[in-house]
Amino acid sequence: MDAIAKELHKPARRNYPRRNVTLKGINDLYQADLVEMIPYAKTNKSFKYILTMLNCFTKFAFAVPIKNKSGVEVARALEPILAKNKMKNFQTDQGKEFFNSHVKKLMEKYKVNHYHSFSDLKASIVERLNRTLKERMWRTFTARGSYEWLSILPGIVKDYNNSIHRTTGMKPKEVRKKHVKFILERITGKNKRINPQFKVGDSVRISKYKRVFKKGYLPNWTNEVFTVYAIRPTRPVTYTLQDHLGEVLKGGFYQEELLKSKTGNVYLVEKVLKRKGNKVLVRWQGFNKNHDSWVDKKVLADAKG
């Protein structure tokens, strides 16, 4: 059992090379996120969040103050942007603020394909926008000695859209269809291929990346062991996984999100639920009641011994 505990607590990486987002044109993909501003609501007319959105090709940014993250409020903030921009794809995280009946209805109205990222990290391009906006807001906060952001946000976004972006080499406000070829040449084919670290059939655990507020002593990796089902020829390489029931997991996983398991399909028992003759019904650590199962008493005794 010590071997399992050692695996579960191995350090997990967060920062590593990821795939470039594949873009096909000006309105191909938009990403959105929410920036939390709750501590400063009283100074900003009860607005607690900023809905940020980015045209991933042109890097043109939008930022809309909202008072809560209900589906109604988020849909209300999104509609003016969707009405003026003929986007094809819309990517967000899996939060209920984006995946709800109100936003779904909006996506259907404007015929937009809304999907989420399977990675533990959010939509990466709009997150970089968030960092830039917050850096500029906090710089102003320091200079003014106030956390009032409602009045300064429009100017910050305007400056961002009128500044040359290092990825495209252009100001977001000035990108047009005639610039598509030039920009595509700048942003494609830059990721270096990395040789696969795992083979099909390998047993692996998945990183349970902890955000900063999570306890550092909690396990870093899943209790459940998965099997590498396929290797994707992406840059960098990613993997498709299969669970112990034979179901293929959605999305791909980077090498840094996986840990090769030396213990295989050996699991820790959370508690014994029932006893019947030579059998015991157990709940496995890290699994819900759907995975409760009957095992021989001897198996548990051998594991302890």
From TrEMBL:
Biological processes, Gene Ontology terms: DNA integration
Species, as recorded: Graphocephala atropunctata
InterPro entries the record matches: Chromo-like_dom_sf, Chromo/chromo_shadow_dom, Integrase_cat-core, RNaseH-like_sf, RNaseH_sf
All copies of domain Chromo, residue ranges: 267-305
Pfam families xref list: rve (PF00665)
The Integrase catalytic domain, residue ranges: 13-180
GO MF annotations in UniProt: nucleic acid binding
GO cellular component: chromosome
Protein name: Integrase catalytic domain-containing protein
